[in-house]
Amino acid sequence: MNLDAHWMPFTANKAFKQKPVLMESSSGMYWTSEQGDTLLDMTSGLWCTNLGHSPARVAEAMYEASRNLGYVPSFNLGHRASFELAERLTELAPGNLDHVFFTNSGSEAVDTALKIAMAYHAARGESGRNLFIARERAYHGVNMGGTSVAGIRANTRQFHRWGEVDHLPHTHDLARNAFSRGLPAHGVEKAQALNDLIALHGSDRIAAVLVEPVAGAGGVLPPPAGYLRALREICDEHGILLIFDEVVTAFGRVGAFTASIEFDVIPDMFTSAKGLTSGAVPMGATFCSADIYQTVVNSEEGIELWHGYTYSAHPIACAAASACLDIYLEESLFTRVNEGIGREFEDAVHSLADLPQVVDIRNYGLLAAIEFAPNADGLPYGTQIFRKGLESGLMVRGAGDSVILSPPLIMESRHLDEFVEKVRSVAKVIWE
């Protein structure tokens, strides 16, 4: 087979194609390669297979939907499943976040939220509010809007920022918060940097503040205790929208349907994707408050928001999401993290603090990062553990100096035992 035609995303293409790793099947916590080797997945694919791999019930729902209604556009037409799904989701959402706009990915959900924010302010006669505040080390997808506001420099260095953006400092504080379990104790004062940016730019120019409740791709950075609430209060004071990017944290990842519920801080909008269909088919969703929806919808006659996607609320994706919701609710998976497995995961990850060169371990819910000291003599240790892990039947995410973990919600104690054993085995090879 010639691998050259496929330009792979976020991949060193030349290196991968010299030694490809190709999966053939998956089930539960494991992938199986074409060679028949099993791989324990401690990443939920890309943070998304919350229900584990290939749940039969979801596949069956998708198949039945495809037989009945393969496609219908959401532009001036509709189908019952999209409205039923939207109602189910908004009933679970916190506060008055009772409207949902369907997209096909987290990246699209973020860009949708940015557009809705600008449309909202324009409808209120404040079209000058078109500057966004995000955060250093933030990841908000790879569409031009999300790329522009994101704070991971490597993801923006080949592209110009298409829009007015400024950044809050990240909240990572090794000196004071190393080896924190749960929310770090120090750092709430970092939220006050928002006041400095408001003074610099003027509150009448700022449309929204966009943050991940727990930063994901930037290194799993749980917010300091009180930090998100402080942002909420500052935004309220200045008429600035607060948007949570919950593409990673929603659907049980941190112990509730959303991180906003877990942390008791309600944004004006939040984005989601990944766990919405547990990775079975692309789908995202942007939730917004009743005030935002009514303000935009009542501002125009005819089309109120000139935005949308060909595959918004695709019938097969709606069927997958609805089946996933059934499983989440019937098996109480949104809260499973807080009923034991979260503490087991925390203990297992922190048990690795004695590995060579570890400088920090941090976690919240089923998210964690093990950070190593920089390696001056070669590949970062996180990258090395990722590569050696693949050879040993373990999938973790290597992010420079860190190993990032986000296992499926269905994980059990035996999977944690296997994970710890394999990481220690890999470490022995690296540091022998």
UniProtKB/TrEMBL annotation:
Belongs to the class-III pyridoxal-phosphate-dependent aminotransferase family. Transmembrane segments: none annotated. Its cofactor is pyridoxal 5'-phosphate. It comes from the Bacteria. This is Aminotransferase class III-fold pyridoxal phosphate-dependent enzyme. GO terms for biological process: biotin biosynthetic process. It comes from Parahaliea mediterranea. Keywords: Aminotransferase, Pyridoxal phosphate, Transferase. Pfam families: Aminotran_3. GO terms for molecular function: adenosylmethionine-8-amino-7-oxononanoate transaminase activity; pyridoxal phosphate binding. The keyword Transferase applies.
